[in-house]
Structures are given as structure tokens and as C-alpha cells.
Write a structure and sequence with these properties.
This protein is an alpha/beta fold. The chain has 2 domains: 2-173 and 283-339, NAD(P)-binding Rossmann-like Domain (Rossmann fold), CATH 3.40.50.720; 178-279, Dihydrodipicolinate Reductase, domain 2 (2-Layer Sandwich). The protein has 10 helices and 12 strands. Helix 4 links the parallel strand 6 and strand 7 (141-144). Helix 6 runs parallel beside helix 8 (218-229). Bound molecules: nicotinamide-adenine-dinucleotide and sodium ion. Nicotinamide-adenine-dinucleotide is lined by residues 6-11, 52-55, 58, 72, 91-93, 119-122, 127, 145-146, 171-172, 174, 207-209, 280-281, 283-284.
Length: 342
């Protein structure tokens, strides 16, 4: 499956090193992989054919070098190299410059990419829209890792659906991150009839994404609230701080502290304190690997717009129908893809 990528950051280092890493293991043993095969596409069937960045220490270099360039700090897994190792091309720096959008669209067409993965820093909505435009012009399916809207742009989304181009977005839901853990605990309280009186979620880390979120956390915070509202009806008593602090020595590790306070029978207090520690960009790559295969399968079937199977893998998925229906439909569609080993 041919993949194009914008933004050679930690997520991409985790994704591509991981694909090669799993290729070196026994195919039966894939620890940490939810779906070794999805829609007939194996984890190891994916190759990068075009990559875009702007950083002077990444552009013009082979992807296998660029993915280790600063400030990337995902661990080195000791893989020998990448089977498909394109050079990093200069991408879109000025989203108002149509010639840059056209150049990216042309590289996408020439590369034969089936899926375009958008993985830039959060907080660049015009740039996100410009890359989305280029992918739609080139007829390539889109996966958006970030909370800056691409699938969430109504006109672009409608055009993609009309042209049978899949649009998977927005904002990936980490493999086992603070949103899903926090949301699950809050929904447990709701289900058991404990009254929530207050809750917070603080995230700290030491990678470029964290540094950036301290300044551009707006879309991220609302996207994280949307993720919680997939699980509970009301998040008024919940404070979410996507980036509470940059702690350099943590590098690409992330620590989330969650606190939940409520009241039970006779107004007596209940309190939970949860600490979650993860490798931040493994947490992204473990879901990107499914999102890009969902997009590729939809593209191969000529199904444009939002593939329902991606619903629970995103923080801000497109709402197609009644939410109560879409969640179980999404789960069923994902299981069906996982069962397809053709
Ligand atoms: P990163 O900062 O490590 O990488 C971003 C890359 O984009 C860098 O290489 C940078 O040079 C490049 N870039 C900047 N502007 C560009 C442009 N105009 N064109 C092309 N490239 C450009 O970030 P990351 O950790 O890889 O995360 C990527 C995105 O995924 C972020 O927006 C992040 O918020 C989002 N996300 C991550 C997680 C997770 O890691 N668990 C979860 C959900 C969402
Ligand atoms: Na990351």
C-alpha cells in the first residue's frame, strides 16, 4: 500500500520504524498490534512513496535519515533501513500560494500514492486545508492525525465524497491515551450513578508536539472534550489540559495524570487518581496503522467520504448518522475489515 506523508516528525519515525521492526519478527507475533491484517492489508505491506517537510535538516535527505533528525526524539529501534526510502520534498510553506499546492498535488499523482497522511504540528489550520486541497486535487485518500480540520471542512469534505475520495479525520484517538482512559472512567461513574463533582486531566511530555501544544492548544482542547463526550453526556465538571508542561528529559514519553471526584450514597466522597505513562508517538502509530489501511480499503472500493470503521479511532470523527447508531456500526465495520484476510 503506497503512502504519502506530510510532516516527518515523531509519529512518522514511530510508524515507519515500527513497520520495519514487525517485518523482522515472526509474522505470528505482533505485540502491540490491534490488527495484523486489516481489509486484506498487512502491517508490513505499507511503504512510503512521497514525503513532505519544511525543516532544512529534513528536506532533501532520505526519509530513513530525516526521521532521526532533531527535534525528533522517538527511540531508535535499530532497524537496518527502509525498503522504500524516498527523499523528503519541500511541502507547503505558504498556504495562500496556489503553486505550492499544485506542486504537492503533482508529486502525489506521480508517486502513485493511495493514501496521504497529514501529520504536521497542531495549530496550522490554513496549512492543513491547503494539504487537504492538494490531496483532493490529486484524487488521493486523506488521513488527518491532527485536530486542525480537514475532514471537518464542509466544502472540501463534500467534494471528496462526490469524487469517491475517502476522508479520514479529524484528530487520531491514541492507542491507549488519556482521552480513552479518562472517558472510560467517567462513563463508569455515570453508569453506576455516582455524581461527578469535578475532574481534571493533566498531560506532560518532552517532545516537539508538547512544546507546540503549549502555544496552540485551542483546537486540541476542544477535540479532547469531544472525545470525552463520545463516552459521557456532560463534561462541564471536567478540566482538560492537553499540555500542562514541557519536561525535556521525558523526550517522547508522555505522562497523564487524571483525577476524578464524585459523590455516592448519602453524599459521601469517591476519588480516583490515575497515572498513565506511554511512549507518545507509539501511541499515535498504533492507530495510524489502522487509519491508513481503512482509508486505502475505502479508496480501492471507490467509497468516498468518511469510512464509518474509523469512528472510534478518532477524537473528532465525522458524524454520519445518529451517534448512538454510528458507534456500534463503526465497531462492526472495523471487525469486518479485521476478519477480511483476502
Ligand atoms: P512533530 O512535531 O514531531 O512533527 C511534525 C513535523 O511536521 C515536523 O517534522 C515538522 O518539521 C513538520 N512540518 C511543520 N510544518 C510543515 C509544513 N508546512 N509542511 C510539511 N511539514 C511540516 O509531531 P508528531 O509528534 O509527529 O505529531 C504530529 C501531529 O499528530 C501533531 O499535530 C500532534 O498533535 C498529532 N497527534 C499526535 C498524537 C500522539 O503522538 N499520540 C495523538 C493525536 C494527535
Ligand atoms: Na507524536
Amino acid at each position: 500500500m503506497k503512502l504519502a506523508i506530510a510532516g516527518v516528525g515523531n509519529n512518522i519515525s514511530a510508524l515507519l520504524q515500527g513497520i520495519t521492526y514487525y517485518g523482522m519478527l515472526d509474522a505470528e507475533m505482533m505485540p502491540g498490534v490491534a490488527h495484523p491484517v486489516l481489509g486484506g492489508i498487512a502491517v508490513t505491506d505499507i511503504e512510503a512513496v512521497a514525503v513532505f517537510d519544511l525543516a532544512p535538516n529534513k528536506v532533501g535527505r532520505k526519509l530513513s535519515d530525516a526521521m532521526f533528525a532533531e527535534p525528533n526524539n522517538y527511540p531508535k529501534l535499530g532497524i537496518p533501513g527502509l525498503d522504500s526510502d524516498p527523499e523528503v520534498t519541500f511541502g507547503i510553506a505558504d498556504p495562500s500560494d496556489q503553486s505550492q499546492i499544485d506542486a504537492v498535488a503533482q508529486v502525489l499523482r506521480d508517486s502513485g500514492a493511495e493514501v496521504f497522511l497529514y501529520s504536521l504540528p497542531t495549530g496550522l489550520p490554513e496549512v492543513a486545508a491547503a494539504y487537504g486541497r492538494a490531496a483532493v486535487d490529486a484524487g488521493v485518500a486523506v488521513v488527518n492525525c491532527t485536530p486542525d480540520p480537514i475532514a471537518g471542512l464542509p466544502e472540501l469534505f463534500a467534494e471528496a465524497r462526490e469524487k469517491n475520495i475517502p476522508m479520514v479525520g479529524d484528530d487520531l484517538q491514541s492507542h491507549i491515551g488519556s482521552s480513552i482512559v479518562h472517558g472510560t472512567v467517567l462513563s463508569l461513574l455515570e453508569e453506576r450513578g455516582i455524581t461527578l463533582t469535578g475532574s481534571y486531566q493533566l498531560n506532560i511530555g518532552g517532545n516537539a508536539d508538547f512544546k507546540n501544544l503549549r502555544e496552540h492548544g485551542g483546537n486540541k482542547e476542544s477535540s479532547k472534550h469531544r472525545a470525552l463526550r463520545q463516552k459521557v453526556s456532560n463534561t462541564d465538571a471536567v478540566t482538560v489540559i492537553p499540555s500542562a508542561g514541557f519536561v525535556g528529559h521525558l523526550e517522547d514519553r508522555k505522562i497523564a495524570h487524571m483525577s476524578v471526584e464524585g459523590r455516592g450514597w448519602a453524599d459521601m466522597p469517591v476519588r480516583l487518581e490515575i497515572s498513565l505513562q506511554v511512549q507518545d508517538s507509539s501511541n499515535a502509530a498504533g492507530v495510524i496503522i489502522d487509519l491508513i489501511r481503512i482509508a486505502a480499503v475505502a479508496a480501492r472500493r471507490g467509497e468516498g467520504g468518511f469510512p464509518v470503521a474509523a469512528t472510534q479511532l478518532l477524537k473528532s470523527p465525522q458524524k454520519l448518522t445518529d451517534w448512538q447508531e454510528q458507534v456500534p456500526n463503526g465497531r462492526a465495520a472495523l471487525s469486518a475489515l479485521a476478519a477480511d484476510h483476502a
